[in-house]
Amino acid sequence: MPSLSSSERNPGALLGRLRTVPRRWWAIGVVVVVLAAAGWIRFAPGSSSSTTQEITATIATGTYKTTVSATGTITPVRDTVLSFTSSGTVTRVAVKAGQKVLRGDVLAKIDATALRAQRDAAEAQLTAANSQLSEDSGGTTAQVSADEASVASATSALRQAQDAVANATLTAPFTGVVSAVSYAVGDTVGSSQGSDQNAASGGSTTTGVTVISPTKLLVDADVSSTDISQLKVGMQATITPTGGTTPVYGTVSEVGSIASASDTGAAQFPVVIAVTGSPTGLYPGASATVAITVKQATNVLTVPTQALHTSGTSTYVYTVKNGKKTRTTVTLGTAYGAQTEVLSGLKAGDVVSIITITLPAGGVTRNGGTGLFNRGGTGTTGGTGGAGGFPGGGNFTGGFGGAGQ
After folding, report:
1. Most exposed: 10, 37, 111, 260, by fewest CB within 10 Å?
2. Could you give the CA distance from residue 16 to residue 321 in angstroms, rounded to a whole number?
3. Residues with Cβ < 8 Å from 209, sequence gap 6 or more?
4. Long-range contacts made by residues 312-318, C-beta under 8 angstroms, separation at least 24?
């Protein structure tokens, strides 16, 4: 064990002497100590027995897809906004948002007293018109024609009055879920028309009660102008809801022909994907990513793209057999990302070289350098340990180097 100087035996004395050194030289000294503690890194000199590692891949066949990606919003197939078509005061709201309803269930009502009076008056008007027509049956042609016109007008008025009474009660047009209710008892409603529209054309904000079909869904997506020409109705699609990990499947049901501008101003086209079945994990209003399969090839022989080399117009790989590498010319087909189709030159089971790594026998050396705290560092993969500096030297447990081998 080397003997310790008085400064090493008494760190306090060393620090005392440092206080007497001008600050400029003090700072330089600290830098020198830190650099010494950090040590240094170098590649140890190689030897004739350097280690070579070959990374290879085995050629095989598989199924590959070419897809067009898009983002969109999940929407219900049916999204119906029901509103009162006559003026009146809301007397009953029978549902709330999130409630399941069956076809024909009552959703809301308005006071129909005045509407029924108008219906009764229309019935009386029609009765009178029919009586007048009967009385004038032997009259002039002009009189009979006028009476017939009165009957037709009265009939139309009665039909409208009857519809107004019927529409004083809103009922569910299909089995589904109430997604929104904007009526409250006591509200005065005006004349407005409800709508039953396919979700692909966009939702309505008309005041009323909205009923949707939550188990029959679509994805309204936007596809760039560079990809839209590849799409056709009937193509298969994989749908992944945002935040989800389990994809579901669907079919392209509509391909739009009128472009709109994206946020960046680029042209994009609407595409509708009908979700297959009634999968869980999809919620109307949520976003999703879509991968539409435009081409699928089976039993395709491929090679890792990273294994390819070019020389002029020739493309080749290095095949490996019994430890020997042979340059082999290949003819390529379609690129599938990290894999490229091989048309000739290789067969299934061939092994190709992707990259060759040569490691020097000495490896990478990290000299421990002059440490700050514990003992001198020891080298990594054959490196030389550093000498101690402050008491013990080294960096914590042997500097930046590991144990030499």
Report:
1. 260
2. 70
3. 81, 82, 83, 95, 107, 108, 170, 178, 180, 181, 182, 183
4. 316/345, 317/345, 317/346, 317/352, 317/353, 318/352, 318/353
Alpha carbon distances (Å) from 348 to 60, 197, 246, 310: 5, 54, 32, 22
User: Whole-angstrom Cα distance, residue 159 to residue 137?
Assistant: 25
pTM of the model: 0.55
Fold for 51-77+216-359, please state it.
Elongation Factor Tu (Ef-tu); domain 3 (2.40.30)
- For 323-380, the pLDDT digits (tens) are 899 999 999 999 888 999 999 999 999 999 998 887 776 555 444 444 433 444 433 3
- Could you give the maximum distance between any two Cα atoms of the chain, in Å? 144
pLDDT tens for each residue of 194-210: 444 444 334 333 478 99
Q: How far apart are alpha carbons 220 and 182 in whole angstroms?
A: 25
**Which of 365-402 are b and which e, b meaning 16 or more Cβ less than 10 Å from the residue's Cβ?**
bbbbbbbbbbbbbbbbbebbbbbbbbbebbbeebbbbb
Phi, psi (deg, nearest 5) at residue 393: 70, 175
Polymer length of the chain: 405
* Domain spans, the chain: 1-50+365-405, 51-77+216-359, 80-211
What 8-state DSSP symbol labels residue 138?
Answer: T
- What would be the CATH architecture of the domain defined by 80-211? Beta Barrel (2.40)
Fold agreement between 51-77+216-359 and 80-211: no
Alpha-carbon span 131 to 272, nearest angstrom: 57
Nearest to 212 by CA among 183, 169, 180: 180
Q: Which two tokens stand for residue 329?
A: 């010319």
Task: Classify residue 226 by burial, with Cβ atoms within 10 Å: 0-12, 13-18, 19+.
Answer: exposed
